[in-house]
Specification:
The protein has about 290 residues and is of the alpha/beta class. It contains twelve helices and nine strands. The chain binds S-adenosylmethionine.
Length: about 290
């Protein structure tokens, strides 16, 4: 069964009386070599478990099941569960769970798999909820080795932007704290049914087992990053003053200069290590 063949996809949807659900971001891949490339590149350890978010009708799931020890697939649309039973029936190493990833208790679901070996994430993510899903995965504290996601190209460029670049945003800095993102390849909109309005890219994030940057207080670290990017046209003292109301602008400028930066620098120029050093000094003043 070729689950990327448009005729087959339409037949399966008709057989189970289903329509593509826009509200769930259902754009299914129709190019088998793209599906194979994602499965090949999401992880380099065959003994891994792969958490897949949004298996759809199971095209990527099958390729993952062929390559890795086990696959746990979370699908929100209960209409797709009988489809997945039909398309994945022969794979004993796949577990499908009908759950919203945003509500799922990932540490409970994945505990037995983490006991057995490495776990990575691989997903063609629904566009409407890319950032919340990525943040949930990062903030879960679960020791995923890699997170490989297909997302809108524009979002991929933001995630993978170098510090100081024009595409760099708060999410870029936060992501680089957890791991090293890398854009693998771009997939044009005509490789999906229905075709989305924009192109997509595949991004692989190799999570740091030990974070190279260790801020004293994570809450202040994230607050500093958010403040710096919320008003990115402002200089850093002005942007931080708007959020750190407990300090005067002079005190904030003093901290910034003591970290070796000019008082007119903008937040987007700072690296993750710079943000950690700055937030440590702010934390020492406000704690
Ligand atoms: N993996 C398939 C593919 O590549 O062809 C389908 C990808 S489609 C872009 C996104 C999938 O995520 C859909 O199957 C959709 O129903 C599912 N989905 C959307 N929101 C979800 C959520 N909150 N939790 C779990 N699955 C979700």
């Amino acid at each position: 069964m070729n689950l990327c063949d448009i005729k087959t996809i339409k037949q399966i949807m008709a057989m189970f009386s289903l329509n593509f659900r826009k509200e769930f971001g259902q754009n299914f891949l129709t190019n088998p070599s793209v599906v194979e490339d994602i499965a090949d590149n999401c992880c380099d350890k065959p003994e891994s478990t792969i958490l897949e978010i949004g298996p759809g009708i199971g095209s990527l799931t099958r390729e993952l099941a062929e390559r890795y020890e086990s696959v746990v697939a979370l699908e929100i649309d209960k209409g797709l569960i009988p489809v997945l039973k039909y398309t994945l029936g022969e794979y004993r190493n796949v577990t499908v769970i009908n759950e919203d990833v945003m509500k799922a208790d990932l540490s409970e679901i994945l505990a037995p798999y983490f006991e057995k070996g490495p776990v990575s994430v691989c997903a063609n993510l629904p566009y409407y909820i890319t950032t919340p899903i990525l943040m949930k995965l990062l903030e879960s504290g679960l020791p995923f080795e890699n997170i490989t996601i297909m997302i809108q190209s524009e979002v991929a460029d933001r995630l993978c932007a170098p510090a100081g670049g024009k595409n760099c945003g708060a999410i870029t800095a936060v992501l680089n704290y957890y791991g090293a993102p890398e854009k693998l390849f771009t997939v044009t909109a005509d490789n999906f049914i229905p075709a989305p309005k924009v192109d997509s890219s595949v991004v692989r994030i190799r999570l740091y087992p030990e974070k190279p940057v260790k801020p004293m207080d994570e809450a202040t670290f994230f607050r500093t990053i958010r403040a710096a990017f919320e008003q990115r046209r402002k200089t850093l003292p002005n942007a931080l003053s708007a959020v750190f109301g407990e300090l005067s602008k002079e005190e904030i400028t003093d901290v910034i200069v003591s970290c070796g930066h000019s008082a007119t620098i903008r937040g987007e120029k700072l690296s993750v290590a710079d943000f950690a050093a700055l937030s440590d000094k702010l934390y020492q003043r406000i704690k």
